[in-house]
Design a protein that fits this description.
With 180 residues, this protein is mainly alpha-helical. The chain contains five helices and no strands.
């Protein structure tokens, strides 16, 4: 390491008797006076400031508490679902009875004979297969529910029966058919 060379004062001029105007007066204190807070303001010690800062940092690190919402009352919805499943099952039962040949005027009354519990699957939904089996069982017990439609209304085409011979010759002669 090299030593630093410091210049020394070698001047031989005598000191001045009056001090320069730029130097401060000798009555200034060495330490500045403590600042006094204005009246009504609170002052904190270093320990209080440290405690306040650590509390705020702790709050900033922890997420705010989130309230978990209370679940809604589902009993109302469960009741409505059960009612709708019953309505759906009734409609499917009536459709199955209509498809099975039960007379239209007897379907509503015959539907009351169906055991609804036997028509539902494990989840409580209407099962088409179980409804069909239940309708078939009712038709087996009450065959009079099904029947042919005896109405004499308008029909297109033949009903598949043979015409009597007497009526056939009259109709044939009307149309000009030759006896064969």
């Amino acid at each position: 390491m090299a030593e630093a060379i410091v210049p020394t004062e070698t001047s031989t001029t005598p000191p001045a008797t009056t001090p320069p105007a730029t130097t401060p007066p000798a009555t200034t204190p060495a330490t500045p006076p403590a600042a006094t807070p204005p009246a009504g303001e609170k002052t904190f010690t270093q320990a209080e400031v440290d405690r306040i800062i650590s509390e705020r940092l702790a709050r900033a690190k922890t997420p705010p508490a989130i309230e978990t919402p209370t679940p809604p009352d589902t009993t109302i919805y469960e009741t409505q679902i059960k009612e709708l499943k019953g309505t759906l099952a009734s409609a499917r039962i009536e459709a199955a009875m209509s498809a099975s040949g039960i007379k239209a005027e007897r379907i509503t009354r015959a539907a009351k004979l169906v055991d609804m519990d036997k028509c539902l699957d494990e989840k409580g939904n209407p099962s088409t297969e179980k409804i069909k089996a239940e309708v078939d069982a009712i038709l087996k017990d009450f065959p009079e529910l099904a029947g042919t439609d005896n109405s004499q209304g308008f029909r297109i085409g033949s009903d598949g029966r043979q015409m009597p011979k007497a009526g056939a010759t009259e109709i044939s002669s009307i149309f000009g058919n030759k006896k064969g």
